[in-house]
Amino acid sequence: METAQEMKKKVLIVADTYYPKIDGVMRFLSEIIPRLRDDFELSLLVPDYHSHEDYFPGIQKTKLKVSKIISLSGYAPMRVSFSNLKKIRESVQAADIVFIQGPALISYVALLYGRKYGKKVIQFVHMIMWELYARNLPSGMRWITGFLRKLTISHWYNKCSLLVVPYKDLAQEMTDQGVKTEKTIARLGVDTHNFIPTDNKAEAKQKLHIDVKPVIGYLGRISKEKNVRTLVEAFERVRQKFNCTLLIVGSGTKEELSHVKNMPGVIMAGFQNNVVPYLQAMDIFVMPSLTETTSLATLEAMACGVPVISTRVGFLKQYVRKDYNGLMFPRGNTGTLVLQLEKLLGNTEKRRMMGENARGTAMIFSWDVTAERLKEILRQ
What we know:
- This protein is of the alpha/beta class.
- The chain is 39% helix and 16% strand.
- The strands form 2 sheets. A 7-stranded parallel beta sheet has the order 3-2-1-4-5-6-7, sandwiched between helices. A 6-stranded parallel beta sheet has the order 10-9-8-11-12-13, sandwiched between helices.
- Helix 5 (129-136) runs antiparallel to helix 6 and helix 12 (296-303) crosses helix 15.
- The two termini are 22 Å apart.
């Protein structure tokens, strides 16, 4: 008779990023893996970024060598070698389910091996790939966006067994684009026990050695699609009228960082393991991204009681509500962002009220609910 351990499904979690880098995918995995490990036999297939810390004790990890000369949006892709391909093949063969996070070479090769060996391949859709192409390609190459979209749909999404998307409208959008693979919904969460408002905003700033004046903030990767340049341009204009600071938390590509460094009034905090104190020091959070699905950083800021100003992208269009918990502006529209910043910088009471509502909105997002939904999906 089989034991409970022997009956557990073997789930191979495949990601194209790993610690010490922390982005939306890694924050997702850091919340989900501990909640899934008792119900499934988990293993990880990830790039080797030479972290010596064991972040998920007791879970088997297969790490793949990465390129030393190529970097895409600050990420070194997998090195194409017989050794890496063998590791991927053997990891996939040993699994019952291949759960890929994408969208890069490790995930794609695991998908191909999954199909070859008849495995159930499930992808969690963390980003809208055709938007990523449109925003990252040089202007002279935008003409191939349509071709890349069709190639991605036919040779990636439509080769998966199931797509898990974080909100309903994305499922419909993918269907409209020609994605025929079955789709199901699993909304992301936020840790509202860890991400909490501060009782004393001035003290929160002082702890970080920031002047006690309004702080406009951003948290996330500093890359082309995140469009931090628009935020910086807007800040340069509003600081002529308001005495304020711009706090940027995160790391990124050299090209994008060069547009931000050494600017008056801008604090570059870099990568931080614990971002809560930085979010608590912010009076306004801005998400200027050109493409997002859910945006965990925005939800975490809201959980800290910070009103947000966001572009009209992804799921943010639904949970950021005008004049209730935040404001919105069109992608890349510096002028409108300036107007929205001035509305909040000039009205302390409005910031307080919207911050309280933002916290209330974040409270309905739960990682426990996300994990239970994923368990249901993986058991089917």
